[in-house]
Amino acid sequence: MAGNYKGAMTLAEGRYNYRVDVDIILNNGRDKKAFVVRTSLESYGLWKAKYGKSGSPFSMFIKGTIKEAAVIDREIWVFGVDATKTNGIVTAVKIGMSYFKVSAEAILNDVYVKNLNAESENDMLRQALVTANKKLYKEVCIAISEAAGILGCKSILNFWIFSNNNNPKIPKDQLHSTLKAGGATSVTTDENTKHIFDVGDNFGGPGQRFKTNLHLARLNG
Questions:
Q1: Which residues pair with 57 in a beta bridge?
Q2: How far apart are the first and last CA of the chain?
Q3: Coil/strand/helix, residue 192
Q4: Each residue of 29-42: b (16+ CB within 10 Å) or e?
Q5: pLDDT in tens, the chain (221 residues)
Q6: Cα(185)–Cα(26) distance, rounded to whole angstroms?
């Protein structure tokens, strides 16, 4: 797929049926992506058992690390990736580069995430969860920028976040200030358009439908 094809990357994916739509952009627009690299914190075996979806698994050896991945409906999923760790993002991008025969910049130009939440969120008081989520988003921003630098990306990167402006786990104002603390040069929100998603719960079961806003943080590579 070498050439000027535009792709995207998603972080912290869970249930396959509720994966992030990477074609959505601001003002209710669409920007069709030619390929997608998706990452999940879970191992392939756990993810497959939990969500009942399978693909064509393979492993790749990169800089002393064997990483699990799978081709699922013509997309690449890379498993065991902590989105706060620079090396995990670098490895996932390299697997995507190898499979799709594209540049790192083509993958990292648009990075999407939907409602990042700290681990053990059900055991936290509300303010503690907001604090934990602020730390999480800041670390993800830093990891994306560091990975882009390691991979030689020079352009501004688009980090897209689906999160309701009134999300009690990290409200809009705190989300935006956190993204800027993580290195974002600007943060904007699609105020007039709400997107509706079906989501799964943390245990692999079906969750609720909810309305969410789309935020765009611009990061330096």
A1: 70
A2: 23
A3: coil
A4: eeeebebbbbbbbb
A5: 655 679 999 999 988 888 999 999 998 899 999 999 999 999 999 999 988 888 999 999 887 788 999 999 999 999 999 999 999 999 999 999 999 999 999 999 999 999 888 766 555 577 888 999 999 999 999 999 999 999 999 999 999 999 999 999 999 999 999 999 999 999 999 877 778 776 555 555 556 677 889 999 999 87
A6: 17
pLDDT of residue 124: 59
Q: Is 185 left (phi over 0), alpha (psi -120 to 50) or beta?
A: alpha
Question: For residue 23, what pLDDT is reported?
Answer: 96
What's the Cα-to-Cα distance from 51 to each of 4, 48, 120, 153, 211, rounded to whole Å?
A: 34, 6, 20, 34, 23
What's the rounded Cα separation, in Å, for the pair 184 and 163? 17
CB under 8 Å to 9, separation ≥6 — which residues? 36, 37, 38, 39, 92, 93, 96, 107, 108, 110, 111, 112
Is the Cβ–Cβ distance between 149 and 105 less than 8 Å? no
Q: Which ranges of 82-188 does DSSP label H, i.e. alpha helix?
A: 86-100, 104-108, 126-150, 172-181
Structure tokens belonging to residue 112: 């999407």
Closest CA to 144 of 198, 221, 196: 221
The whole-angstrom separation of Cα 208 and Cα 85 is 29
Residue 158: which of 187, 133, 138, 115 has the closest Cα?
Answer: 187
Distance CA 131, CA 21 (A): 27
